[in-house]
Design goal:
It is a single chain. This protein is of the alpha+beta class. Helices cover 27% and strands 24% of the residues. The C terminus is likely disordered. The protein has 7 helices and 11 strands. It has a domain of 140 residues: Ku70, Chain: A, Domain 2.
Length: 296
């Protein structure tokens, strides 16, 4: 795993919400791209080639303020929506990671996983952050939550990972295509593909021999390494060209922590009060002689 950069910039700030408890957090990218970024250059002048806003009918560039958002209907018809209309249509909170429920991690297929982020406690939220992380770890579950990032609602998994809480952005169910249109062999060893028992046994033996503990550091991106080597060799040979660099990104705000124990009790409702009263009744029922036999 690549080491974290110093003072990583927060992409988003808000709070995790479960029951009445709020955990102020900041969101940080958990990955760094390793692939080669091939920029477009004009080979005649070595100028960067960018993306322009072009009117497709006239071929002319247009200013940002003249661009509106349109949703295509049948034929050539569009419905045009303003930013205010879009916000009013779905006035969703934008600073909350709202936990909907908790599930076993194994129940969430890897097919749904899209991108991981780190969550760091914000302000004075260390204790409540640690409580949520430890509670998830002990229960062996992850939180399924929704939150808004870059004007788009996302489904996410809140996962304890060592000292960190991580937020894994998930794909929505409707984004996963059904395999029904593909010509796939039937499920089961004796399906349409006619798998023989001896073949299946040998395949299982081979899988068994190749099964090992998951060590991600063992696997390397050889293609990227080869391109870096090629770039290094060409640079050493003096085959370079000078190009000018480019741009930057945004930030946001924080929130406060209240009495955690009380909020947890209120979130649990009657269950917490019943659980509190039950031991008190039992203790009262014990004879006085036995009361001193156990240390409090």
């Amino acid at each position: 795993m690549a080491g974290p950069s110093a003072n990583p910039r927060a992409i988003w700030k808000g709070a995790i919400s479960f029951g009445l408890v709020h955990v102020p957090v900041s969101l940080h990218s958990a990955t760094q791209e390793q692939e080669i970024d091939f920029d477009w250059l004009d080979k005649r002048s070595m100028d960067p080639v960018g993306y322009k806003r072009i009117n497709k009918r006239t071929g002319k560039e247009i200013a940002k303020e003249h661009i509106v958002k349109g949703v295509k209907l049948e034929g050539d018809e569009y419905v045009v929506l303003s930013d205010d209309e879009i916000k009013a249509a779905y006035p969703k909170r934008t600073q909350t990671i709202q936990i909907e429920n908790f599930v076993k991690a194994a129940d969430v297929s890897f097919v749904y996983i899209e991108k991981p982020y780190y969550l760091a406690p914000d302000g004075r939220a260390d204790r409540v952050y640690a409580l949520l992380r430890e509670a998830l770890e002990k229960a062996g579950v992850i939180g399924i939550a929704s939150f808004v990032l870059h004007n788009k609602e996302h489904l996410a998994a809140l996962i304890p990972a060592g000292p960190a809480l991580m937020l894994g952005v998930l794909r929505w169910a409707e984004e996963i295509r059904s395999p029904d249109a593909l010509d796939l062999p039937k499920v089961g060893a004796t399906g349409a593909a006619g798998v023989k028992p001896a073949e299946l046994k040998m395949a299982q033996q081979l899988i068994s021999q190749m099964t090992a503990a998951w060590k991600p550091e063992k696997f390397k991106d050889d293609f990227t390494s080869a391109i870096h080597e090629l770039v290094k060799r060409k640079a050493k040979a003096g085959k370079t060209a000078t190009v000018q660099p480019f741009e930057e990104a945004p930030d946001t705000s924080s929130s406060n922590v209240v009495d955690l124990t009380e909020l947890l009790k209120q979130s649990l409702g009657g269950k917490a009060r019943k659980a509190e009263k039950a031991p008190a009744k039992k203790a009262a029922a014990k004879p006085a002689a036995k009361r001193g036999s156990k240390a409090a």
